């Protein structure tokens, strides 16, 4: 009874891609930046081979910057280049699942068109504040008081294809905010078809704090994904964290939403004790949401270090035919001036008791090689994009 545990360290990129300058991300290297912190320590990931990945070896090691001294490692590793023209969560996850995008999702660097905002205001009965790219913590600091006085919605975006709505939970209960976001999701189609509409509830007194009840409303995938083909073939597809939202619930047989990395890891460990055949797909969003977007190098490093301390438990939970795959979906370098995602390679660190370790599979073109490989492990006929990573079978 084979199982695959695919864990996304959200935004943990491993260096700029060749076209990073086109996205304003030249010089970005999220893992390297985190490694400059004195709080960074990943000896268990080092043992699996993380620091032998192309572009990482000689730049990052388990005790900060430098070169790993470990000559042998236990896993199979590689880095993967994104073929979709994007650097956002939805694009990255869909490509991991075998669905690269031929056209990027639309972005709105000058704010959203009046036609869209007028329709949103009419259906919600509330006015609109902000309507420009903004940091999520700064926007509630700068517009929160005005929202509480006016009752309007704070609508903002970023460099990514997102429409975000922030509201104080005492003014607009979180469930009502979700309803407003569902309206926005229905309106955001065609030229306004952003990858995600995101509910951003906040609470307390000024300067306010965001709650853990963020919720993403994604477009439904535009074609078959790994999740679809696995579910159609009769396998379990378990979602942990925001995976269920990224794929608009499609192709998933069971889901558990989480509020933090610690909970996501614990849920994954619990799933390892269950008898199922198929995929457990986990997203750990704190790296991105709490640390990358806030340029918090030490926080990012501490989160990576915590994950590393849980790696022995994850490895111990693997059964004979299981496969653990650890990856990312884009970058979000906490050391750059930008607070947005960055166009970076993603890592893949894989381990299974029945696969030969100590292999660097090089640099691969397309995140879809991950999904293609998972489908191949279960011998599912499919037309997903990508090439199988033979070293994992």
Strand-helix topology:
Layout: E1 3-9, H1 30-35, H2 43-48, E2 60-61, E3 64-65, E4 76-81, H3 89-96, H4 114-124, E5 128-133, H5 136-150, E6 153-157, E7 162-168, H6 174-187, E8 196-203, E9 209-210, E10 215-218, H7 226-232, E11 236-240, H8 243-246, E12 254-256, H9 261-271, E13 278-284, H10 286-292, H11 297-316, E14 323-327, E15 346-351, E16 359-365, H12 368-377
Parallel strand pairs: 1-13, 1-14, 4-16, 5-6, 7-8, 11-12, 11-13
Antiparallel strand pairs: 2-3, 4-15, 6-7, 8-9, 8-10, 14-15
Helix pairs in contact: 4-6, 9-11, 10-11
- How many domains make up the coordinates? 2
Low-confidence spans: none
The topology string of helices and strands comes to: EHHEEEHHEHEEHEEEHEHEHEHHEEEH
Q: Note the gap between the termini.
A: 15 Å
What is the CATH class designation of the largest domain? Alpha Beta
* Beta-strand percentage range: 15-25%
């Amino acid at each position: 009874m084979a199982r695959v545990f695919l864990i996304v360290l959200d935004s943990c990129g491993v260096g700029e891609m060749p076209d990073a300058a086109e996205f304003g991300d030249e010089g970005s290297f999220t893992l390297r930046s985190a490694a400059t912190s004195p709080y960074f320590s990943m000896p268990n990931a080092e043992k699996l081979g993380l620091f032998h990945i192309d572009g990482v070896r000689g730049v990052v090691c388990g005790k900060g910057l430098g070169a790993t001294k470990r000559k042998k490692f236990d896993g199979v590793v590689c880095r993967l280049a994104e073929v979709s023209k994007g650097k956002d969560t939805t694009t990255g996850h869909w490509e991991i699942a075998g669905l690269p995008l031929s056209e990027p999702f639309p972005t709105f660097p000058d704010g959203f068109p009046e036609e869209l905002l007028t329709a949103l205001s009419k259906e919600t009965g509330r006015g609109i504040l902000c309507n420009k790219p903004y940091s999520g913590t700064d926007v509630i600091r700068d517009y929160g008081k005005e929202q509480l006085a006016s009752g309007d919605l704070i609508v903002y975006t970023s460099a990514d294809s997102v429409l975000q709505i922030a509201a104080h939970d005492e003014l607009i209960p979180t469930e009502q905010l979700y309803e407003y976001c569902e309206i926005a999701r229905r309106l955001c189609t065609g030229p306004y078809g952003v990858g995600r509409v995101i509910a951003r509830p906040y609470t307390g007194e000024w300067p306010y704090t965001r709650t853990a009840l963020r919720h993403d409303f994604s477009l439904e995938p535009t074609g078959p994904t790994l999740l679809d083909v696995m579910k159609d073939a009769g396998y379990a597809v378990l979602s942990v964290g925001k995976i269920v939202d990224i794929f608009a619930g499609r192709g998933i047989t069971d889901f558990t939403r989480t509020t933090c990395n610690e909970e996501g890891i614990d849920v994954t460990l619990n799933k390892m004790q269950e008898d199922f055949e198929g995929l457990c797909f986990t997203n750990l969003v704190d790296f991105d949401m709490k640390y990358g977007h806030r340029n918090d190098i030490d926080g990012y490093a501490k989160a990576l270090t915590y994950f590393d301390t849980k790696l022995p438990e994850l490895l111990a939970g693997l059964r004979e035919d299981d496969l653990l795959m650890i990856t990312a979906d884009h970058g979000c370098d906490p050391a750059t001036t930008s607070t947005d995602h960055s166009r970076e390679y993603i890592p893949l660190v894989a381990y299974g008791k029945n696969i030969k370790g100590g292999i660097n599979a090089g640099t691969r073109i397309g995140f879809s090689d991950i999904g293609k490989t998972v489908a191949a492990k279960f011998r599912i006929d499919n037309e997903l994009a990508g090439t199988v990573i033979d070293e994992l079978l």
